[in-house]
């Protein structure tokens, strides 16, 4: 019984004395808001590389200072994405413009004469004789729009 109690107590003390989480930040990241303007370009680029490596890890493991330093890294790939979206929109608008210029306004089958001829053809073929164009007393327009 005493052995179990001593073992149990030793595991409790190990867990109490053991530090579970460690902060990843170094002193340069800790006060980045105040130090950013004073850093040289080489220090800024090395700090950005460190931050990029830290950002690849689990976001929950990062300290508050690491998360605060993220806006100082720059916009990332946002510019490339915006340029890509703009290019796709420009290409689609160019395609729409070219199709409007090269394609005639109306197909020949949408003229009134063509539609009236279609009505006559449907009447001669007795199409839809119950409720349609060939029925007795039909008063609709038929295929004329």
TrEMBL record:
GO terms for biological process: mitochondrial electron transport, cytochrome c to oxygen. InterPro entries: Cyt_c_oxidase_su4_fam, Cyt_c_oxidase_su4_sf. Its main location: mitochondrion. Gene3D superfamilies: Cytochrome c oxidase subunit IV (1.10.442.10). Pfam families: COX4. It is a single-pass membrane protein. The chain crosses the membrane at residues 81-103. It comes from the Eukaryota. One of its GO terms (cellular component) is respiratory chain complex IV. One of its GO terms (molecular function) is oxidoreductase activity. It is found in: Mitochondrion inner membrane. This is 17793_t:CDS:1. It comes from Racocetra fulgida. The lineage of its organism: Eukaryota, Fungi, Fungi incertae sedis, Mucoromycota, Glomeromycotina.
